[in-house]
Amino acid sequence: MATATASGQFLARLIDPQSTRKCSIYAAAPTSRSRQTVRFFRRRYQPCSMSMNGCQGDHGLPVENIETRTLPAVPSPALAMDMLNSAIYQLKSHPPPSSSGVIRLEVPIQQQIDAIDWLHAQNSLQLSRCYFSGRTVGSSYLFNPADNGNGSSNHKAKGLVSVAGVGSAVFFRDIHPFSYNDWKSIRRFLSEKNPLIRAYGAIRFDARSNISPEWEGFGSFYFTVPQVELDELEGSSILATTVAWDESLSLTWEKAIDALQATMGKVTSFVVNMRNQRPNTFIVSKTHSPSKKYWELTVNRVLQQIDRANSELTKVVLARSSRVVTATDIDPTTWLSCLQVEKDNSYQFCLQPPKSPAFIGNTPERLFHRKNLSICSEALAATRARGGSMSHDLQVELDLLSSPKDHLEFTIVRETIKKNLEAVGNGVVVEPEKVIRKLRRVQHLYAKLAAKLRSEDDEFDVLASLHPTPAVCGFPREEARVFIEENEAFDRGMYAGPVGWFSGGESEFAVGIRSALVQKGLGALMYAGTGIVKGSNPSLEWDELELKISQFTKMLKIGVPQLEQLTTGV
């Protein structure tokens, strides 16, 4: 297997003496600098007793049985629920003989149901929730529903649009950095023959840093295979349940099927279209960490270090956390639904462990997509606002393409990703090398990179070598990471980390930027970052942060002006 160079890497490679396989741990201990933490998320993380943590099992042994059973198509979610409940009852009456396994039951629905609407309908559940929407419809697994479950089909293949899930058939969480063994633990519950059995989740930006209270439920990484999920297709949908059991993890078949029935008893089939709903609240206060004053000081500190004669540092990505408190609750699914108008060329996601805040986002940046041995990644850097007219937009585009400062920032990202792909794959192709990618509010410099893996087992190497890219950390990687650790006064958590999914023969991860951490009744933290290179202007970079969080703030009204706070005293 290919191994990326350890020197200067975010992850250091060691040999696992138990298995003679490599694992990834962080090479340096956390700094002793005390990190400011946000204290308004009070609840302590408590794992669900009715699901199992797959990281605690034997990662070297796959589960004994993985299968998908497709039931006849029905016209509505209510009928799909009835059919699944009946099938679960029959399944409970005839337990499988294996001591471990995964069984997915799915019912095609003859109408397209918006997955985010279905997830919003499950708001009253105190269960884990997840949502993932790819950038391009039909770019993922193509589903061909079976006719009456007999293997034949009279439906046209339809593209998967988005997925929403509740509950955990099995989850994967730990406070240590995501390792090769953790990846193997996830893989043992997946199968190429069952492509819609997926583990959705995210990984911290920097697992070496201390976990602050608001991120505690996520650990260093968090993945979940949903118990109940709604798969939105082009023109139709699928309602599915997944039961997973492993006696070596003390979750027997009986306990697992009972837990699934308990979850199904809480799921509603009544779905309301949220397309025109907006958060009915206003901002009472808004605070930034760092404040604008300290932001400017930190940017100047980066520039001074870059200008030092013996410094290798050429770029540092500084981030800001903006906390908003609103008059009434911010509902994360309503907020995410409002971002549907922003989703062209963007991924949308929601990840919420039990009794924890929801991490939501609308990110344009792909970390990688793997299909068998084919892998692709992207370089996305440098930002400009969209123009107010066609001619103005073109002028902004030309300015971005010709800017030496932005070219430097972009080239660092593209060439670093290229080098990292060359370490784990063959035949790296960069095409296009530099073009404009336009989003609803902003535009960026963009390049696409593709390669062939030597083995599907190299997937972990891809994740370890690509994250974090210079677009969210800087260059050189370790020097930039240390600067961030020593100078940022808040916990990035999963912000700017990998967020996405694994399945048997395919996986896809975005970079968790343009994101927020939301909990009903307790406000929200919005995150944004910007790359600092030679020639950066602190005031202009601050304006870029405001532009990036505007997709969230535009949906909230500003309350009494005197109440809005713009500094934190950091």
Describe the structure.
This protein has 570 residues and is an alpha+beta fold. It contains eleven helices and 28 strands. It has a 15-stranded mixed beta sheet that branches. Strands 3, 9, 10, 11, 18, 19, 20, 21, 22, 24 and 25 form an eleven-stranded mixed beta sheet that branches. It has a two-stranded antiparallel ribbon with strand order 1-2. A hairpin with a 5-residue loop joins strand 16 (347-352) and strand 17 (358-363). Helix 1 packs antiparallel against helix 4 (253-264), helix 2 packs antiparallel against helix 6 (332-338) and helix 8 runs antiparallel to helix 9 (459-466). The longest helix has 21 residues, at 404-424. The radius of gyration is 23 Å and the shape is globular. The two termini are 45 Å apart. The model is unreliable at 1-45, 137-157 and 560-570 (pLDDT under 50).
